[in-house]
Design goal:
about 25% strand, about 525 residues, 5-stranded mixed beta sheet, alpha/beta
Length: about 525
């Protein structure tokens, strides 16, 4: 099943394995996906002398790993791990051997071990979902680190009865028993926060001693990564606090306007940014968030949600932005039940059904074009009196007979029956007339909200909640800089964010050598 080039790549990837592992396909002889599952596992096993394959008779379909001691992996694939989940299988093998670049540091491991109780988590996924692998790989790690937690990866297309019983209409959806824990994309840190909230956790003693650096970069996206690299190249000690390396780029399927790189996926670019930072003496505090930033005459001190404290005379805020919500009745209630944000992930759930895309910018019209090939009808609802998307995208949407555009209308409510979305109430902004459009789902694509909340007490923000900066990325607080989508710089683009990150780092270094920066705490 795997082509020769992939097999050769796997030989290199698995060259670090130390233990011996058996890939087991437990599958019913009559299962329609039996041959596909056994084929993929057999091919993967053939790529390393440390791996072997075994097929055993089962009642349905699942795959797992058995180690040298005959211990079964705490994660089980109730899926054929192809598509976007092929990487999850490969990383799971490495992680079960204690290898992999995604292994969390001791702070995160201690928090995972502190989770209370025994639990079985089920992650319902789709093989076409671009957001699912990150959640799958994070929860696999949780199950490896904490032996009281098991993780099942369930392909909703194979286990339809189980998915329908839970009325799953969005992926990834993470359940513990019948309780929904999480829907949609999330990093290990974000998932751990939710697990702590639901399960509780034993108290963990954290090192609260202040860690001092020359430069603290908050954010690991294009602006943050660039700022960190430029600062490190000046010989400075640098710390990066980031929920996830790559930031929003990990949510981008394809990037075609990064000059010199005709095409690259968001995940590939995020991986390259992480690898580039690893070439320098940069302390990466991943899966962390800054809760607060205080600024005094003695320096700047960041307190993290983990309890850690980091100080530096120069702080570069590059936290990016998050997808904006509608903030109307029914939106939160029906997330994962008809309210969605990723057309690539959740679009297949609405094949042959009527849906709406909220927002007429580039992302909204791109979503409408994608969904038009799956859904019976796509209605684009735009707040302004005209679409904001590029003309070429508008033309492509206009050529789809099942795409309808409604402008100058405001969404005022997401309507449902208590279990799922049944429609959306809109108001004509010209006549104030309200009506309900019957449909099965809405895809929210209304732009971004700057992640500036933790910093509002120390730096100036504008009406759009962007951190106000000058031409050298200075904020109104000496020693604090901002770069990328969180700042007031116009045009939110990856290439612009990278340039702003470099500019912020150079400005901070310029201020340092001219004696303008204060001492650390």
């Amino acid at each position: 099943m795997l082509d020769i080039s992939i097999k050769e790549q796997l030989k290199t990837v698995f060259s670090v394995l130390e233990g011996n592992y058996k890939l087991v396909a437990e599958v019913a002889a009559s299962h329609p996906s039996r041959q596909e599952l056994t084929g993929i596992l057999s091919d993967v096993a053939d790529s390393s002398s440390h791996l072997s394959f075994e097929e055993v008779e089962g009642e349905s379909l699942c795959a797992y790993i058995v180690n040298n001691d005959g211990v079964k992996s705490p994660f089980v694939f109730r899926a054929v791990p192809t598509g976007h989940e092929f990487s999850s299988l490969i990383i799971a093998i490495l992680n079960w051997d204690g290898k992999g670049k995604n292994i969390p540091d001791e702070v995160l491991r201690s928090k995972i071990k502190a989770l209370k109780g025994e639990h079985v988590l089920r992650s319902f996924i789709s093989l076409t979902c671009t957001n699912c692998p990150e959640v799958v790989q994070a929860l696999n790690l949780v199950s490896i680190i904490n032996p009281a937690i098991r993780h099942e990866i369930v392909d909703g297309a194979l286990f339809t009865t189980e998915a329908e019983a839970l009325n799953i209409q969005g992926v990834p959806s993470v359940y513990c028993g019948e309780q929904l824990i999480h829907v949609g994309k999330a990093s290990l840190g974000a998932l751990l926060d939710k697990l702590e909230e639901v399960f509780g956790a034993e108290e963990v003693t954290m090192n609260t001693e202040v860690q001092n650096y020359d430069v603290l970069v908050v954010g690991g996206g294009p602006a943050g990564a660039t700022a960190a690299i430029y600062s490190a190249r000046k010989g400075l000690s640098v710390a990066v606090v980031a929920d996830r390396v790559g930031g929003q780029t990990k949510d981008t399927v394809g990037i075609e306007n990064l000059i010199g790189t005709p095409y690259i996926t968001g995940n590939e670019l995020a991986g390259k940014m992480g690898a580039h930072m690893a070439e320098y003496n940069i302390s990466l505090l991943e899966n962390r968030r800054v809760l607060s930033l205080t600024s005094t005459d003695e320096g700047h001190l960041a307190t993290l949600q983990s309890g850690e404290r980091v100080a530096a005379p120069a702080v570069i805020i590059a936290t990016g932005a998050s997808w904006r919500r509608l903030n109307v009745p029914g939106e939160d209630q029906y997330i994962g039940k008809g309210v969605a944000f990723c057309p690539h992930c959740d679009g297949p759930f609405y094949k042959g059904k009527e849906v709406a895309v909220i927002g007429g910018g580039n992302s909204g019209i791109e979503a409408a074009i994608d969904l038009a090939g799956i859904c019976s009808k796509v209605t684009v609802i735009e707040f302004m009196d005209a679409l904001k998307a590029d003309k070429v995208l508008q033309g492509a949407a206009a050529n789809r007979p099942n795409v309808e555009v409604i402008t100058y209308n405001q969404v005022v409510e997401v309507v449902g029956d208590g279990k799922k979305v049944t429609g959306v109430k809109v108001k004509d902004r010209g006549t104030n007339e309200e009506k309900i459009i019957s449909l099965s789902a809405i895809f929210v694509q209304i732009g971004l909200l700057p992640n500036s909340a933790p910093f509002k007490d120390v730096v100036e923000v504008n009406r759009a909640n962007e951190i106000v900066i000058d031409e050298k990325c200075h904020t109104n607080t000496p020693g604090i800089y901002a770069a990328g989508d969180v700042s007031s710089v116009p045009f939110k683009q990856i290439i612009i964010a990278m340039g702003e990150g470099a500019k912020a780092a150079l400005a901070a270094f310029e201020d340092r050598i001219s004696g303008k920066l204060v001492k650390t705490v």
